Amino acid sequence: MTESVRIILVDDHTLFRKGLAELLERHGKVSVVGMSGNSSEARALLEEHKPDVAVIDLNMPDIDGITLLGQLRAEGYALPILLLTVSDAQDDLAAALRAGARGYLLKNMEPDEVEDAILRAARGETVVAPEMTGKLVNLLDQKQGSSDSLLSLLTQREREILSYLSRGQSNKAIARSLDISHDTVKLHVRHILAKLNLSSRVEAAVFAVEHKFATRTPSGN
Question: Where in the chain is the domain with CATH 1.10.10.10?
């Protein structure tokens, strides 16, 4: 049997986090190894349990989820972090992506959808609530300017990696497919984001799909 994905759940509403934990654990695919209602406890859980994924509420009394996310990234926590919120505001989505969120989920999603998003994030994919897809495209439209001129800035290798990003591939998976180092892939991704004026892998993936990179077959140099 495949091991369950180990997560921590950070939300200041006790009933909500306990109820969500029970729903997520019902199929055995997700294991909630720790829960907390504030940022300081979240850090302790990260250190103690070394989870595969962290699910963090956007709005908490001591610190908002986006600020906490930014702090955790700055402190070197590289695990996938998903923000779970009632806010469908485009500005919150943009701020979450800039801070390094691997996904943006809404609390009105079905439990099975949240479970699927967690499993996909654990595999290295990026996830956004279906209701937020249009707003993510709006963000890209605002930022990308002339797509043809931006794409012309990419090298052939960067175009190959962008194609893999469109499929939600992790850096490790891309490195294996192209037979290059994980650090080299990270560097290429950083260059892709800078050249396309994007803030995150999620935006890069949506950009790639919009420009039909998902239908292209990557080929090595």
Answer: 145-215
- Please give the pLDDT value at position 1: 46
pLDDT on residue 221 = 41
Contact predicate 114/84, CB 8 Å = yes
CA 174 to chain centre: 16
Contact at 8 Å (CB) between 151 and 195?
no
Task: Specify the CATH architecture of the domain 5-131.
Answer: 3-Layer(aba) Sandwich (3.40)
The stretches in the chain having pLDDT less than 50 are 1, 215, 217, 219-221
Which residues lie closer than 8 Å to 14 by C-beta, 6 or more apart? 37
CATH class of 145-215: mainly alpha
Centre a 10 Å sphere on the Cβ of residue 76 and count the other Cβ atoms it contains: 6
